[in-house]
């Protein structure tokens, strides 16, 4: 497993992985972003891949709230 970011976040008690399609709808992109943003507001670390689509939208949502996020592959 490859991880990019502060790997110490893997020890967090509140972590949610968000993954999905690269070929997603605009609706899927929008709600992955909103969901990750809401998780980040609550101090929950978001982990995802960084593939184009749902993964990237999740990271963007978490980062919009200055939340904790990790990339894995």
From TrEMBL:
Smf/DprA SLOG domain residues: 1-70
Protein name: DNA recombination-mediator protein A
SUPFAM superfamilies: MCP/YpsA-like (SSF102405)
Matches recorded under Pfam families: DNA_processg_A (PF02481)
Species for this entry: human gut metagenome
Stated family: Belongs to the DprA/Smf family.
GO biological process: DNA-mediated transformation
Family annotation (PANTHER family): PROTEIN SMF (PTHR43022:SF1)
